[in-house]
Amino acid sequence: MKTKAAVLYEIGKELVVDDLEIPELERGQVLVKILYSGLCGSQLNEIKGRKGEDKYLPHLLGHEGSGIVEKVGPGVKKFKKGDFVVLTWIKGSGIDAPSCKYKKNSQTINSGAISTFSNFSVISENRLVKISKKIPADIAALLGCAFPTGAGIIKNILRVKKGSSIAIFGIGGIGSSAVLAAKFFGCAKIIAVDIYEHKLEFAKELGATHTINTKNEDAATKIKELTGGLCVDYSVECSGNGKAMETAFESLHDKGIAVIAGNLAKGEKISIDPFDLIKGKKIFGTWGGETNLDKDIPLYAKMYLAGKLKLDKLITQKYGLGEINNAFAELENGEIIRGLIKF
């Protein structure tokens, strides 16, 4: 059986859509027909070589999506043929299956425990979650990375208090999800920070009460002004920009908490004043919003079906697989918030 898939053959080069031979399923592996895949800045960083040396070239990409189970391998107990699933890089329960290898004629094409830029993909059992078929397939794809990371920061790490204040730096897929969640969980002052005016307008639609365009004004100064000199209770950095990370920490009051979700290029560092830590400020990194895959994803799905989460707003563009390089170019240029590949 074959699949069309976008392959990264060389760092810094465009992805190539090729026909690949799908391997036989091993223990803990599941064959999934992909319906939608999300486009993430992390994947863009991988393509551009910002994560450092890539030892696995050529390989597949994509770590969030939605699909239908086609076949299950030995030992798989969570799923059966026909199940509607969310695909995610975040580990849940089930077998942590090994990476697999596709073939293009005699050439080996590597893949990790998950890949989603293909019509069909072999996925590890513990990177899948079954959800209701009432959820639209495009919405389900958001539940694989963008929303659980952004919402998880608000719900699982910060555990924001009603009436609190928060600044969110970088209104991409994760940042916009954080804005939506901050609104849902009762933050009274939600300050969105970005360099693109259309993203700031989008943040307002999601619930941001104030916006700051750092092309025109200093974020730390403006946040202090907007809070009457008090600074914010929480800050979230999603842009992957070192200056933004530093400003997110600087913009807190002395008992505030910052969470860093963005990725700097390998080797880059940030600088903070350690006396701020002594005074009581806290800074954390996050791995997928500390999401409990098997509990949080079904919860978000139920909240969507109940009309409590307006996830539809997060999708700003859809592309075909043949348009994937154009999609990543638009992501790099800040033209889209969260784009999806439709199969």
TrEMBL record:
Gene Ontology biological-process annotations: formaldehyde catabolic process
Co-factor requirement: Zn(2+)
Domain of life: Archaea
Entry keywords, A to Z: Metal-binding, NAD, Oxidoreductase, Zinc
Keyword Zinc: yes
GO cellular component entries: cytosol
Protein family (similarity comment): Belongs to the zinc-containing alcohol dehydrogenase family.
Protein name (Swiss-Prot/TrEMBL): Zinc-binding dehydrogenase
Species name: Candidatus Naiadarchaeum limnaeum
